[in-house]
Amino acid sequence: MVVILKNNSQKEQTQQLIEWLEGLGLGVHTVNGHYQTILGLLGDTSKVDIDMVKGLEIVEDVKRISEPYKNANRKFHPDDTVIDINGVKVGGGSFCYIAGPCSIESPEQIATIAKEVKAAGATLLRGGAFKPRTSPYAFQGMRGEGIDLLLHAKEETGLPIVTEIMDAAHLPLFENVDVVQVGARNMQNFELLKALGKTNKVVLLKRGLSSTLQELLMSAEYIMAGGNEKVILCERGIRTFETATRNTLDLSAIPMLKSMTHLPIVIDPSHATGIAKLVKPMAMAAAAAGADGLMIEVHNNPEKALCDGPQSLTPDAFADVVKCTNKIIEAIK
Ligand code: PEP
Ligand code: MN
Question: Rounded CA gap, 288 and 292, in Å?
């Protein structure tokens, strides 16, 4: 980090600032130019409040040279993180298929889909129990009862389960949930992220609707700073001016994130496109671009789904996606 001082800065104030920065455990390298003084900060600057330093009377500008995320940064952790979810590995060359309905709707629905996605090649079962819906009048999910049904499907199939949390107060309900999903709308719910940081749960962190990759990594950092390193990132499409698809799938996020972080990256082509027939090409493209897995919505009767039917695949269509994506994975090995 570099701090550029105003050209009329007083020696005494400069010295006070240097001492304060040194007090934070940083080395300070001072460059006295003809008109301006520049302070080069050495050490871990991730805890420096850049806005606060910028606001100081004698400071003209502050520039970050290194990234503000340390735990998630590949620079400090060159090897891929591999997360083991009850024997299912994600990252470092192990590809996962997370599949299941948008929402858990009934005991029969989740039991049927769970069996069918497993037969089609799913390695994890998803299902929403707490649903973040735009309208308060839309189906809100089966809540705790939904989690119980998902746990039952886990017992029946042996598939680890993934479901979304919307409130840290619900954490006790997630005790036997293998992967806790933080949805796009909660990516910057910092209190929720901090609470998850104190657990040892695997967290699937979805990119916010209009969040940058750095913001996504800063949210991962919130979880990791609390001591929980088990974070899987998920690109699920971002808001752009395009309206033909529900969102715009940012496939370039895969190689970009791979260079920025060691955390695994999963792609959700269902929410990214909102259109069932686009899921297969985007799933294959994601595998080709180096993703560590896919999250795909599957419903036994998409036309009657209580949520996200138009983007949901039938179990047969999902089986076809797995077959074709596996060919891509083989081809790029
Ligand atoms: C979901 O996965 O069910 C979901 C609501 O996704 P997102 O948070 O990406 O919209
Ligand atoms: Mn959905």
Answer: 10
pTM of the model: 0.92
Q: Which domain holds residue 191?
A: 83-332
Residue stretches of the chain with pLDDT short of 50: none
Q: What is the pLDDT of residue 43?
A: 86
Q: How many CB atoms lie within 10 A of CB 175?
A: 10
For the chain, how far is it from start to end, CA to CA, in angstroms? 39
Compute the chain's Rg from CA coordinates.
23
Q: How many structural domains is the chain composed of?
A: 2
For residue 113, give the H/E element and its range.
helix 107-120
Which amino acid makes up residue 199? T
Taking CB atoms and a 6 Å cutoff, what residues make up the pocket around ligand 1? 102, 128, 132, 164, 183-185, 206, 236, 268, 271
Q: Is residue 112 part of a domain?
A: yes
The secondary structure of 238-262 as a DSSP string is B--S--SSSSB--TTHHHHHHHHBS
Residues 95, 171 within the same domain: yes
The per-residue pLDDT for 270 is: 98
Pick from 235, 239, 237, 312: which is nearest to 266 by CA?
A: 235
Whether 42 and 14 share a structural domain: yes
Residue 119: strand, helix, or coil: helix
**Residue 39, H or E segment:** strand 37-42
Which atom from ligand 1 is nearest to the alpha carbon of 308?
3
